[in-house]
Please model this.
Amino acid sequence: MTMVEDGLPGGVDDAPPQPLVLPVPEPRRRPPTLAIVLLSASVGLVGGAAAAWGVYQRLGPVERIVATQPSQGPGGPVTPSYQSIAASAAPSVVKVLTRPLSAADLAGRPTGFAVGFVASADGLVVTSAHALNGATRLRVAFPDGHAVDASVAGTDLVHGIAVLRAADSRQLPPLSFADPEAQAPRPGDLAITVGSPPFAATSVTAGQISSTGRVVPAAAAGAAGGAVVDVTTIDATADPSEDGAPVLDAAGRVIGVVLAGGDGAPPGVLALSGRSAADLVAAIERGGSARRPTLGVDAVVLDPATAVAVGLRSGALVRAVVPGGPSDAAGLVAGDVVTALDGIPLDAQHPLDAVTLNLTEGQRVVLTVVHAGAERSVSVVVGGG
Model:
């Protein structure tokens, strides 16, 4: 309420102050601003969506960055920001071309693009085996603007991984792999995908790990050989052209490789095993060969909860046995559960395929196998393939 000040009637030298009553103006009729705003926003959204869809159909995603500031603690940020992780990884992320492309191809909805990342200073590039399906010529385009021919150095079809050898890496910095023994990826962990789609230098997608140890059927994985095992699912989305892109943890280390799944694949981003990619790169660097030790068996981790639910022991559930392979010769059949290899318990941190990678061809090992509820020890000679 407004009071009259000194020097005016009703001031401090006269009678006690009286309130000054001001006339209330007649309200003016205003245009329905809210309705206009809502209508304008609706028109803008519809028009913008239509325009964006037209650009997407013609050119693909231009650039996508999902970014959040790092979490804060008493002493400041406790994890790097998405931007800093992406900026650090981007120089090592490459485009992989699987066939010659013309200007007319690029003007339409281009195919033949995938993504990879530099995994060694001497030119090894990791991508997904699915990305190479139907490839007629391989070229790798680096972030600094040069492109070179590439060849397949090795593949791991069980895990869906392919490694290329670029003719010239120009000493680009390789990405580092996470140590699965120190900290295996777990549901709820942060996962960041850094891609390089057509017409964009970098795309970044962030989400969290939904599940690990999944088996993706061959049709859904686009695999020629069979099902792809040890797949991680991530609560995020990725463009199909980001097939082969690295998946990073909060420290910027590789924990997976993007797989562009087809119909029947689990929802979200599918990530091939980063551990298997690291093992394949190491095998190629050691001997120039991608030949791997094998037991000739397709097995998937049977976690304790599932095992209890179906009345089985936890371990590696045998899904299929390669005819004529080491496990077939030892008498293993589908439905057996391998609980240990040379006394090493098999679980999510020590899956059978990963433990097998530490063996050598011709080595004899003892498997602890549960068959029809009875446990037995089986001697198997490690093969190679």
About this structure: Residues 84 and 252 are 9 Å apart (CA to CA). The chain has eight helices and 22 strands. The two ends are 90 Å apart (CA to CA). The longest strand covers residues 203-216.
